[in-house]
Automatic annotation (TrEMBL):
It comes from Coprinopsis marcescibilis (Agaric fungus). Residues 52-116 form the J domain. InterPro entries: DnaJ_domain (IPR001623), J_dom_sf (IPR036869). It holds the Pfam family DnaJ. Residues 13-23, 179-207 have a biased composition (Basic and acidic residues). This is Chaperone regulator.
Length: 232
């Protein structure tokens, strides 16, 4: 009886010495793979075109608000700085949050979608296709690079042009505001100088009156002396 149980104990001991369980190795590999994927996603967000929130969140331009929020939630949890060791994870997280905020703003999204539509028309015309071509048209699906790549590239160009115009307008407004501020400052300085001149004029009134009286009295005496001299 004891002889039959001895090999089993030896077998169990041999298993313990064989090393970690296969499941433990799989879990370790999965953690490493997930950590690597987090790093890759952070890099993707950082390299995405900053003026296009669709590209940052990596959703289609036709995505619904619910789809956008779902994708944002997934990514924000995936690359959260508390879970991701990438040095720039906080920066990527902030970019993601800003992109979701812009797409949640109805006015901003409508403005962006109008530009995307304009880009779509330009791309379709470049392929001699009508602007009414549906999104699931086989011709669009057969394009190489894919239609989405062409659309993103054209949208990027228009967004850059729009940003340049916006910055020029802002610069011009600041310049105009500067000129207006300078003009107001000059007006204030002019008014202040006039007020000081008027105050000085009033302060010297008595002195001027006294000087005039002295002058008048002196002139009167000279005239009297002149008359006496003539009569004498």
């Amino acid at each position: 009886m004891s002889a039959s149980t001895q090999p089993q104990a030896s077998s169990s001991k041999g298993k313990d010495q064989a090393g970690p369980d296969v499941a433990d190795i799989d879990r370790l590999l999965n953690r490493e793979a997930t950590a690597f994927q987090r790093e890759v996603e952070v890099e993707r967000i950082l390299k995405a075109f900053k003026l296009n929130p669709y590209e940052i969140i990596d959703v289609d331009e036709l995505a619904t608000q619910e789809q956008i929020k779902k994708k944002y939630k997934q990514l924000s949890l995936f690359i959260h700085p508390d879970k991701c060791s990438h040095a720039r994870a906080p920066e990527a997280f902030d970019l993601l949050k800003k992109a979701e905020s812009e797409l949640s703003d109805k006015a901003k999204r409508e403005e962006l979608d109008a530009l995307v539509t304009q880009s779509r028309h330009i791309v379709l015309k470049s392929f001699n296709m009508p602007i009414t071509t549906p999104h699931d048209d086989p011709k669009l699906k057969s394009l190489t690079p894919p239609f989405r790549v062409h659309l993103r590239a054209q949208s990027k160009q228009l967004l850059i042009e729009e940003e340049v115009r916006r910055r020029k307008a802002m610069k011009m407004n600041l310049a105009n505001e500067g000129l207006e501020a300078k003009k107001k400052e000059e007006e204030v300085t002019t008014k202040k100088r006039k007020a000081e001149e008027e105050r000085a004029w009033e302060d010297n009134r008595e002195e001027r009156v006294g000087s005039w009286r002295n002058f008048a009295a002196t002139s009167s005496k000279k005239k009297k002396k002149s008359k006496i001299a003539i009569l004498g």
